[in-house]
Write a structure and sequence with these properties.
The structure holds 2 protein chains of 2 kinds. Chain A is an alpha/beta fold. Helices cover 55% and strands 16% of the residues of chain A. In chain B, strands 1-2-3-5-4 form a 5-stranded mixed beta sheet. In chain B, helix 2 packs across helix 3, helix 4 runs antiparallel to helix 5 and helix 5 runs antiparallel to helix 6. The chains are: A alpha/beta, B alpha+beta.
């Protein structure tokens, strides 16, 4: 069974490119170019995974997630962007996306990422892993929830290897863990990213943008 | 700032107050209240109203000016200044007005018309002699300051607006120049090399990187930070060897001189990966912490046996390991045939 995918991106050319690349691996059941188009479409089609551009003309990808999440909690979102702005990436993750990959990703890796997200795992590109390590770097504690506001040494290790370009399987072999455990660590980091009230996170992301 | 015009639509008498309100972009009621209060001050508000009416009706401007001076004089008198004080202050204001009317400026380097200077000096002399003679502290200094603000404020405001406009224009010009030098040039190159996908890909990636740095990064064309410099090195290697180098980073640091060996060693490591690994993707990760700078260069390619590398292949030993050692850091090479290669560069801060 092929995964049922909806593609949300305002660039028709880019959508055509992805459609062509993924045609034999997944079933693209719908496409949208804006938040206003995407929300009713996703509600109606109820796909497994939505490939979501971070930037859309009538609001960010988080607008789509906010409009759908309530009614279709089963739909998973994978952010796909060329944007380097940490603020944008972090905000779409915090809205509920289960991962972020850059548009330069290879076809095989994209298919793999879609599969992972559909199974409920988190997918971090090296770039996102770097962002997260930077945002959660050791420093003054800002109060709030200690468990949510810091990474465990193991999570740090896993993220660092992702940032260095290692795949889950390679990370598992290197750290003598099972792939499932590696996935669990990444999902845990995703949860912290989404739930942490750490205001350093927001401040950091904004600073990155403003410099 | 819009010009002062009588407001025919919203008027109580002649539309002076709402005209002033429209010019200053405030509520007309506020302006009417101010005029009412000024009217109590020896009738200054009423005279000022007529002055602006005459001015707004595009009748004789000099009548408006005389009325305006009368209004200010009346106001100053009402604040308790003696006749001489009023005369001095009025002349100073008239002098400032004359300077502005004749296109001069009281800012450093501005042109000062003679008549304005004459009025200013005369006014100052009269005002100072007045205080000297009476021996009393300045009467109503706050009121005078307020009046000056009232007169000069709008002018300063206009200068500020001009400045904002000019900055906006300059920014626009900078964007245009930037787009021309980079994006348009790249598009031209892409058209010429349309039959060479590898070259087009490398061009597009370099352009993307540059644009991204300009939009979100340090904003200068020359690399100012470690990550920028590594991105530049990666772009060069990409163009020379048609590989794709992805850079991830956590933290960044200003590109000081002592970080340069790290950039050069990393560039050499990327070149090695591009030349010998036999794969098209290379991953680079930069980590800057409080006590060290680390760069990881990794490929999933052929790998090699370190002991089997011939002595004359100086790249790794000299350009990477030796260079890092001399800089006070280290390079660790992890590789095995068929297992890819990772080179870690580390420099304590």
């Amino acid at each position: 069974m092929k995964r049922r995918i909806v593609l949300v991106d305002d660039h028709e050319l880019f959508r055509a490119g992805v459609r062509g690349e993924l045609a034999d691996a997944v079933e693209i059941v719908g496409e949208a170019g804006s938040v206003a188009e995407a929300v009713p479409l996703i509600r109606e089609l109820d796909p497994e995974v939505v490939l979501l551009d971070v930037h859309l003309p009538d609001g960010g990808g988080e607008g789509v997630i906010a409009g759908v999440a309530q009614e279709r909690p089963g739909v998973k979102f994978l952010a796909l962007s060329v944007s380097d702005a940490a603020e944008d990436v972090i905000s779409v993750i915090r809205a509920g996306a289960r991962g972020y990959v850059t548009k330069t990703i290879t076809r095989a890796e994209l298919v793999d990422a879609i599969d992972r997200v559909a199974q409920g795992d988190a997918v971090f590109s090296p770039r996102l892993a770097g962002f997260v390590l930077d945002a959660f770097k050791d420093g003054e504690r800002v109060g709030g929830d200690e468990e949510l506001d810091s990474l465990t040494p193991r999570e740090r290790e896993v993220l660092q290897l992702i940032a260095r370009g290692y795949r889950y399987k390679e990370i598992a072999a290197r750290l003598h863990l099972s792939v499932k455990t590696v996935e669990a660590h990444v999902s845990s980091v995703l949860r912290k990213l989404q739930l942490s009230s750490r205001h350093e996170l927001t401040r950091w992301a904004q600073e990155r943008r403003l410099i | 700032m819009p010009h002062f015009e009588l407001n025919e639509q919203d008027r109580a008498l002649a539309g002076v107050c709402s005209g002033v309100a429209a010019m200053l972009e405030v509520d007309a009621t506020v302006v009417r209240l101010v005029f009412a209060v000024l009217a109590l001050a020896g009738g200054a508000g009423i005279v000022l109203y007529f002055a602006l009416w005459v001015y707004g009706a595009r009748k004789r401007v000099w009548i408006a000016a005389v009325l305006g001076v009368m209004a200010i004089a009346g106001l100053l008198q009402a604040l308790g200044l003696s006749i001489r004080g009023v005369a001095g202050a009025t002349l100073i204001l008239a002098g400032l007005f004359a300077v502005l009317r004749r296109g001069g400026s009281v800012r450093p380097g501005g042109r000062l018309p003679l008549i304005g200077v004459a009025l200013l000096v005369t006014g100052a002399v009269i005002l100072l002699s007045h205080f000297g003679a009476s021996g009393r502290p300045v009467i109503g200094p706050g009121a005078i300051a307020g009046m000056l603000l009232f007169v000069i404020g709008p002018w300063v405001w206009r200068l500020q607006e001009d400045r904002t406009d000019r900055i906006r224009l300059e920014e626009r010009a900078a964007v245009a120049a930037r787009v021309h030098d980079s994006v348009l040039q790249t598009l031209a190159l892409v058209q010429r090399h349309a039959d060479d996908p590898a070259r087009v890909g490398a061009l597009a990636r370099r352009q993307e990187r540059e644009l991204r740095r300009w939009l979100y990064g340090s904003g200068v064309p020359d690399a100012a930070t470690l990550v920028d410099a590594l991105a530049d090195a990666a772009a060069d290697v990409e163009e020379l060897h048609t590989v794709q180098i992805d850079i991830a980073s956590a933290g960044d640091a200003p590109l000081e001189e002592r970080l340069e060996p790290v950039v050069l060693a990393a560039r050499e490591a990327m070149t090695n990966a591009a030349k010998f690994a036999g794969v098209r993707e290379v991953a680079v990760y930069v980590e800057v912490t409080a006590d060290a700078v680390s760069v990881f260069v990794r490929d999933r390619g052929a790998g090699f046996d370190r002991t089997a590398v011939p002595e004359d292949r100086r790249g790794l030993a000299e350009s990477v390991e030796g260079r890092m050692r001399r800089a006070g850091g280290e390079a660790v090479v992890t590789s095995a045939p068929g297992k890819g290669t990772e080179i870690e560069l580390r420099l304590p801060r």
